[in-house]
C-alpha cells in the first residue's frame, strides 16, 4: 500500500515590507488541484504550458476590491496537472486602489506582481508533493 502524504499550505497576508503602506493585500486559495497520471516519466520530451488568469476588479466597497485568479500548469503528453484558484482582496483608500487593481496599457495590475510569487510557491509545493519537477522558469524555492 502507498504511503499517505499530507500537504499543508497556509496563505496569510503579506509582510509589511512586501506591501505598500497605501494598501493591504490578502490572498485566499479556494481550490488546489494536483494530479499525476504516471509515476514514471519515460518521455523526457514532455512540454509544459502555464496559463494565468486574473479577473476584473470587483468593488466590494469604496475601500475594498476583489480580483479572482486562476493558474494552471499542464504537460503534453498529459503526465501531470496543477491548478490553483482563488481571489485577492485589496483594501485601502479609494484613490490608492486603482493603480493596484486596474490594468494599465498591456501591464497587469500592480497587485499581480505581489501575489504571483506566492502562487508559484504554492504550485511548486504541489509539484514537490506529486514528486514532479516544474520547468526552471516556473520553479521557486518553497
Order of helices and strands: EEEEEHH
Strand content: 35-45%
At the third CATH level, what is the topology name? Bacterial Protein-export protein SecB
Overall radius of gyration: 17 Å
Uncertain regions: pLDDT < 50 for 5+ in a row? none
Secondary structural class: alpha+beta
Look at the structure and give the CATH class.
Alpha Beta
Shape: elongated
Based on DSSP secondary structure assignment, what is the total number of beta strands? 5
- CATH architectural designation: Roll
CATH homology superfamily:
SecB-like
Classify the helix fraction into a percent range: 10-25%
How is this structure best summarized?
The protein has 142 residues and is α+β, with helices and mostly antiparallel strands. It has helices at 94-101, 110-130, and strands spanning 23-36, 47-54, 58-61, 64-76, 80-92. The mean pLDDT is 80.
Explain what you see.
- With 142 residues, this protein is α+β, with helices and mostly antiparallel strands.
- It has one domain: Bacterial Protein-export protein SecB (Roll).
- The protein contains two helices and five strands.
- The chain has helices at 94-101, 110-130; strands at residues 23-36, 47-54, 58-61, 64-76, 80-92.
- Strands 1, 2, 3, 4 and 5 form a five-stranded antiparallel sheet that branches.
Amino acid at each position: 500500500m502507498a504511503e499517505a502524504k499530507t500537504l499543508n499550505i497556509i496563505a496569510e497576508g503579506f509582510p509589511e515590507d512586501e506591501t505598500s503602506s497605501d494598501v493591504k493585500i490578502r490572498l485566499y486559495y479556494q481550490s488546489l488541484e494536483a494530479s499525476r497520471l504516471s509515476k514514471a516519466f519515460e518521455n523526457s520530451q514532455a512540454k509544459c504550458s502555464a496559463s494565468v488568469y486574473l479577473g476584473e476588479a470587483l468593488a466590494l466597497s469604496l475601500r475594498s476590491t476583489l480580483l479572482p485568479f486562476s493558474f494552471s500548469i499542464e504537460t503534453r503528453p498529459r503526465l501531470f496537472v496543477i491548478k490553483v484558484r482563488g481571489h485577492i482582496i485589496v483594501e485601502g483608500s479609494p484613490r490608492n486602489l486603482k493603480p493596484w487593481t486596474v490594468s494599465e496599457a498591456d501591464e497587469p495590475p500592480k497587485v499581480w506582481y505581489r501575489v504571483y510569487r506566492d502562487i508559484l510557491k504554492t504550485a511548486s509545493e504541489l509539484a514537490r508533493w506529486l514528486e514532479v519537477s516544474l520547468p526552471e522558469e516556473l520553479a521557486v524555492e518553497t
